[in-house]
Write a structure and sequence with these properties.
Elements (H helix, E strand, L loop, with lengths): L14 H7 L10 E2 L2 E2 L7 H7 E4 L11 H11 L5 H14 L15 H14 L4 E4 L1
Parallel strand pairs: 3-4
Antiparallel strand pairs: 1-2
Helix pairs in contact: 3-4, 3-5, 4-5
Length: 134
Amino acid sequence: MQTSRIQCSPRSHDRLHHLRERSPAIQGGRIVICGHDVGTGKSNRAELRRDVGMVFQSYNLFPHFTVERNITLALTLVKKNSKTEAQRIAAEVLALVGLADKSASYPEQLSGGQQQRVTIARSLALSPQVIAQI
């Protein structure tokens, strides 16, 4: 099996996103991400999205939600965690990125670096197999 590395640079930052969201036309071989064959067009997109976390440079935080709610939203809606369990996970990942004291803050109250760490925490909270920062 041949393994390829896709590096996301400023000019090509959407390559991994493209692979994750749409199957590109490939001329030969296979593209496998976390065990999902994405080159055939037959892979389960929901499973792929669950297994590959994305951290965008533009953060994509909901400005009207607290830091904690930005993290717990996907945990409660997608992973169907209870509110209590989602809050526990949020506290855990916020501590990992050094923002345990910012759970009640809103994104506009954070520096750019802190906002980026919140997006990393949000991705970590979902326990993906791979996290791509693009």
